[in-house]
Design brief:
Number of strands: 22
Distance between the termini: 53 Å
Low-confidence stretches: 192-271
Radius of gyration: 25 Å
Mean pLDDT: 82
Helix content: 25-40%
Structural class: alpha+beta
Shape: elongated
Strand order of the largest sheet: 4-5-6-9-10-11-14-15
Number of helices: 17
Length: about 550
């Protein structure tokens, strides 16, 4: 579907005297319309871009034609710009949450405006000044031309709260070369009706750093706030996701000695190994342990990865990454997290005789009887097999928590009847979206199985997303999330959940724990060389 010019949400002269009617008429009807027309021509000429949103295109804009970068940025930036402006008599004050964030992150409103104006005035040539959210905090930045902070080509990436156009066409008819005067006047028409302006939809949904914001991490792709234009609905839906930057998780070396160097910032595109079977790290002040359970070699026969393709097509990205192409190697490593009196185990591996979770727990000094909660992402055997040992509960004092839909699916499976019989007294089913334990929220990611969930684990602003089986292989699932996976109960829903997740993680910089990635599966999904890559944050083994 072609991109369209959104109508102005007010009259051309409504922003006077700050911005005059003639400027608004030319700016909206001529300049913005030109960006839309040229964007449509550029996208029509590139089949790879057709059907994608601008936000999807921006994550790898470095590989797109220059015309898409310039005109796509022009369309997105201006669509936002019209929405953050309003007639002076309709403007409001920032929400309490936004005002508090400005005080804490930017030194107060006066300092914020001063620094924002300075960024806009100092932008050489044409460009934009921005207020963004980066790593959970507000930051002021600027970009040249029609670039914006969602693009993979800019130095300071983040989610946009506010943007000011400092191209000459935005102010020259009234202010000539006095850009600083234009920026001072800009503040008299910023922030429209607080019921539907940008900060109400974008800021209050996620900048407040609340339970609601964390809860929206996996739901945000279906959020469509009631904004004035389709472009802004898409923009807000994406902002609600990608601004949820998960704050720094602190990987720590196993038995790291004083004076040893801290884990380096990862730059390799290959997942860094760590010493098996136990890897200790922190989520804020919470102790976390990756526990090795085993490996799962999968034949490259297009029955699991790349269904409908050829083994050669599946082998190509693996070979390029220096990985074996047949069999395709997956690892299995449950996660243990301690939060006060709670000791929580996320999934349980293959089970006695198949996996080594119990030995890994012993190495870590963890008594299975001390585990208070077992969080199940879904009911596949490599995730629930360790719940039972010798016909009895392997974790006798633990509540076994899984989604209602997953529990119903397990009970309906005759092959799981023996396991279901043993665990039934301890199962506590929940609906996704709930806080299922202190600092742990279940996110609805159904598709791989009927009730699959991911878990968001938080200590204040320090957060980690336990992804379960949204992704299986650190190359194939990340670089090709659109491939059909034979493991998925619902291939269409599974593919959508995976695509949504990869898109959100690329944009947000979220810290993840991936159950099947190379041990310990701790890292980020980032854009490198124009494509998505898993970047390990684990300290390499000595």
């Amino acid at each position: 579907m072609a991109f369209t010019l959104p109508p102005l949400p007010y009259a051309y002269d409504a922003l006077e005297p700050a911005i005059d009617k003639e400027t608004m008429t030319f700016h909206h009807d001529k300049h913005h319309q030109t960006y839309v027309d040229n964007l449509n021509k550029a996208v029509d000429a590139d089949a790879d871009l057709q059907g994608k949103s601008l936000e999807e295109i921006f994550t790898s804009i470095s590989t797109a034609p220059k015309a898409v970068r310039n005109n796509g940025g022009g369309h997105w930036n201006h669509s936002l710009f019209w929405e953050v402006l309003a007639p002076a008599d309709q403007t409001g004050e920032p929400s309490a949450e936004l005002a508090a964030a400005i005080d804490s992150d930017l030194g107060g409103m006066d300092k914020f405006k001063e620094d924002f104006n300075a960024a806009g005035a100092a932008q050489f040539g044409s460009g934009w000044a921005w207020l963004i959210v980066q790593n959970g905090k507000l930051k002021i930045t600027s970009t040249p031309n029609q670039d914006n902070p969602l693009m993979d080509v800019v130095e300071e990436r983040g989610e946009v709260v506010l943007g000011a156009d400092v191209w000459e066409h935005a102010y020259y008819l009234k202010y000539q070369n006095r850009r600083a005067d234009y920026l001072k006047s800009f503040w008299s028409v910023v922030y429209g009706n607080p019921d539907n302006a940008l900060y109400a939809a974008a800021v209050e949904a996620w900048l407040k750093r609340s339970e609601d914001a964390r809860r929206n991490l996996r739901r945000a792709f279906s959020i469509q706030p009631a904004h004035r234009s389709e472009t802004m609905r898409i923009l807000m839906a994406t902002a609600a996701v990608t601004a949820l930057t998960l704050a720094a998780c602190s990987p720590a070396a196993n038995d790291q000695k004083s004076g040893e160097p801290a884990p380096p910032n990862p730059t390799s595109t290959v997942a860094a190994p760590a010493e098996k079977p136990v890897y200790r790290f922190k989520i804020g002040a919470l102790d976390a342990i990756a526990l090795f359970d085993g490996q799962n070699p999968v034949p490259n026969d297009n029955k699991v990865f790349g269904v409908g393709l050829t083994p050669q097509a599946v082998a190509a990205p693996l070979t390029a990454a220096g990985q074996p192409a047949d069999p395709i190697m997956l690892e299995i490593h449950p996660l243990l997290v301690r939060n006060g009196a709670r000791t929580m185990l996320f999934d349980t591996g293959l089970g006695a005789g198949k996996g080594q979770l119990m030995q890994s727990l012993q190495t870590a000094g963890v008594d299975p009887a001390s585990i208070t909660d077992v969080m199940i992402s879904h009911g596949h055997p490599d995730h629930v097999g360790g719940l039972v040992a010798d016909g009895a509960l392997a974790f006798p004092n633990a509540a076994i928590r899984m989604s209602e839909a997953e529990w119903a699916s397990m009970r309906a499976n005759p092959e799981m009847a023996d396991l279901v019989r043993v665990i039934t007294p301890n199962v506590q089913a929940f609906r996704p979206g709930e806080e299922v334990a202190p600092g742990v929220e279940a996110q609805d990611t159904a598709g791989h199985t009927p009730g699959h969930v991911a878990y968001l684990i938080a200590d204040g602003q320090n957060q980690l997303l336990y992804t379960g089986d949204l992704m299986h292989h650190w190359v194939l699932s990340v670089e090709h999330p659109d491939w059909t996976v034979g493991y998925d109960n619902d291939p269409v829903a599974g593919k959508k959940a995976r695509l949504d997740e990869i898109t959100a993680l690329r944009a947000s910089g979220a810290h993840i724990y991936a159950y099947h990635f190379p041990f310990p599966g701790l890292g980020k999904i980032q854009t490198r060389e124009g494509r998505a890559m898993f970047i390990s944050e684990a300290q390499p083994a000595a």
